[in-house]
Amino acid sequence: MHYFDLKDGVLHAEGVNLETLAAEVGTPTYVYSAATLRRHYGLMREACDAHKGALGDALIAFAVKANSNISVLKVLGQLGCGADTVSEGEIRRALKAGIPASKIIFSGVGKTDAELAFAIREGVRQINVESSTELERLIAVAASMDAKPDIAIRVNPKIGAGGHAKITTGGAGDKFGVPVEEAMDLYAVASRSAHVNPVGLACHIGSQITDLTPLESAFKVLRQMTETLREQGMSVTRLDLGGGLGVPYYGETNTPPPSAYIAMVAGVLEGLGVEAAFEPGRLMAANAGILLSRVVHMNERTDGRRFLVLDAAMNDLMRPALYDAFHDIKPVRPKGGEAIPHDVVGPVCETGDTFARDRNLTPLQAGDLVAFMSAGAYGAVMSGEYNTRPLAAEVLADGDKWAVIRPRPTYDEMFAREPIADWL
Ligand code: LLP
């Protein structure tokens, strides 16, 4: 569900007319809907609160990697949402958005000593440890600071899932977490340390998961491990269940709603007496954002192929090039007519700069606006300046209000980041 709808024949972001917006801010521009973000958080919160018995006071920690714009984080933070982070930069963003350190989880396979020290200094809620070497380093860093941070051990349950091989994380060969046996050993090592306090286990098996079965299997592994660790006299009070729940990108009806997902988790954890944490990224942000783009021209070739060339490119929205991902493309002012196949491409000099092949679209012409739907997660955050294309602007719509929350950089600003070697 989202709040991008047609009003008077023009696509709006909540109360904001996207034609007017494009005229003022230019294109390509990401536009987010605050009401949609709030709605998604609300659905998760409501579902968790309905299962307090099984989940405790569950923390919903938005996966900042999905959309790290500070205003977006602020919308969620104001509702009580926490943050799942994977770098010092993301922790800094979350703090800047007003999310307290006590609600910030620090995950990631390659945290540096400096990043670990930063997280300890800021007093984050929990550091998710992903390997034995990281645990050793963390203990050394904490000892040097005379600290004892709360940690969780990230388990690789050898159950991978997700919408694409490149976004599956829980499989045996994936780089994330440690296998069950090793996790049990690490937990024991951590329990004996004076410089870390193991509070629980974590897992995240993949992204864009539309079948609850692999998630349920993974969570059962965590439950079993919790019981065994407790039998061995160790304390386990928290389980971090990661993110991963899929969203409908194009009218899919097989995506389980948050309520079904949370009910499944509650069923697995019933009676265990742990506090759950969730790290949804896509679920919160994907359908809360669009990428607004203008048609540069239609290249109707004599061989019959119809290329719709946009002013957005793979550097702005990488998901189709990287994962063959599907994003619905909607005209901002639908004109009707027969939908015919188009290849939708950007101006970057690579064949991979193709958003869609043979996509049925009603006729469009130079100057028309289109919206890539469901682009609020893993959109702007994954963009770059390839071909010296300025980063797309970002705008937040909230009712009838809107604000530029990341301006498009000028060429001067871009070039100012590159001091010229003084001997040239
Ligand atoms: N927690 C951890 C430890 C993660 O690695 C991730 C995502 C999440 C939470 C959030 O997962 P979500 O709820 O968003 O599925 N760029 C890819 C997605 C990469 C996801 C990486 N990890 C894409 O555009 O599809």
UniProtKB/TrEMBL annotation:
Modified residues (N6-(pyridoxal phosphate)lysine): 65
Record text on subunit structure and interactions: Homodimer.
PROSITE patterns: ODR_DC_2_1 (PS00878), ODR_DC_2_2 (PS00879)
Pfam families tied to this protein: Orn_Arg_deC_N, Orn_DAP_Arg_deC
UniProt cross-references to NCBIfam families, sorted A to Z: lysA
This protein's name: Diaminopimelate decarboxylase
Residue span(s) of domain Orn/DAP/Arg decarboxylase 2 N-terminal: 44-286
Cofactor entry: pyridoxal 5'-phosphate
Catalytic reaction list: meso-2,6-diaminopimelate + H(+) = L-lysine + CO2
Species the sequence originates in: Brevundimonas terrae
EC number: 4.1.1.20
Residues involved in substrate binding: 282, 319, 323, 350, 378
Keyword flag RNA-binding: no
UniProt: pyridoxal 5'-phosphate binding residues: 244, 279-282, 378
